Amino acid sequence: MPRARTIPELLFADHAPPALHAVTTLGRDDRPELVLRRGELLVEVERVARLLRDRGFAGRPVLIPERNGIEYVVGFLACLRAGCMAITAHPPRPGGGGERLAAIVRNSRPAGVFATPGIMETIDRVAPDLLRDIERIVYEAPAVSVQEADGPPVEPILDQSLPWPDPDDIGLLQYTSGSTRDPAPVALTQGNLLANGMAMRDLFTREGRQGGTVCWMPLYHDMGLIGLMISSLLVKIPFHLMEPEAFAMRPVRWLRAMSNTGSAYSGGPCFAYDLCVSRTSAEDRVGLDLSNWRFAFNGAEPIRPGSLARFQAAFGPRGFQGMMPCYGLAEHTLLVSVRREGEPIRYRVAVRSALDEGRLEVRRTTEIDERTTVEVAEDEIGVVACGSGIPDH
Known about the structure:
The protein is of the alpha/beta class.
C-alpha cells in the first residue's frame, strides 16, 4: 500500500494486533467495562462508512452530538473514512443547554445526524425542532464486556469498493469559542488531521510503553478528540473513556483510572490538576500508582506555575513525574508546542506591565519539582514554558 495520506488509510496500513483493546468505557470501579478491540473497531468503521456513503453523505456535513462513548469513536472515524465532514458537538442536557448545539446546527446545516437512540430522544425532548429535516443515522456500537472479549480476534477486511478520502477534503468542522458569541467553525482537512496526529505519534511513541490513555475530556473538545483519541489510535494503545461528569463530581476517579489501567497518557486543563489536589484527601491518595503516567498534558487554558508545583508535591510521592505543559489551538488542528519527556519543567517570572505592552522582560527562570515554592510578586507574572514547536508544522 502507498504511503498513507489520511488517518483511515494509516489505521489499515500501520497494522496493530486485532485483539488489542482499541477503545473501552470505564465502569463505576474506574476499570474498563465495555470494549471494542482493534479488529472489531475497523470492521465497524468500514461498515458504517459504507452506510454513510450509500446514503449520500460523502462530502456533506454530519453532526455527531454524542457523549463520551464508543459510538463517538466509531462515528467520527466512519465519517473520515466515508469522506464526510464530521461536526463534533455535545448533546443538550435534560435541564437545557441546547443553545450551543442549536448555533452549530444553524451554522453547519448538517445533512445527517449520527447518534445513539438515547441521544436522539433527549434532543427531541429538549429541542423538538432542532433535528427537523435532518436525516438520522441511529447507531449503537457492538461493544462487549471486557470479560467476554477473549474470543478469536476479528481480522479487519478493507472494503475495496470504498474510495479513500482525499487529503485536501474537509474532514472536520471544529467549532471554537461560543462563550461570548456563537461558536465559529474551523475547517480542517483530512491531511491536517493526519499531520497533527503523526507529529503527536512520533513524539509520544515509546518502545515498551505499557498501559494506554484515559480520557475524561469531552470528545467534542479538540484536546479530547485529537490530542487523546486520535493520538491513542496512532500510537496503538488502549483508549479508555470516562464521562466528564464522573471526573467533575469526584476528581479522584481520574487518578484511580490512571492507576488501575497503568496508563501513560492523559490530560486536561490546568483547573483539573487543581481539583485533584484540592478535592482529594491523603486517604484517597493511598494506593495510587501513577509511576506510568509519563504524559500528563496540561493546556486549553492559562497554566499556573503554582498549580504545577502543588500537583507535583501531592502526587510525586505516588510516582508521578509526567507533567507536560503544552499549547494548541483549533486553527492549528490542535498541538503547537509541548514539553518533551526528560526536559525540566520551567517557568519564567516576567514583569507584568511589560507583558501587557507586548514585551517579555524576564527577571528569573525557575524549575519546578515537588519541593518548589512558587513566589511571584504583585508586579510580576509567572509564565510556564510550553516547550518547542512540533516538527513539520
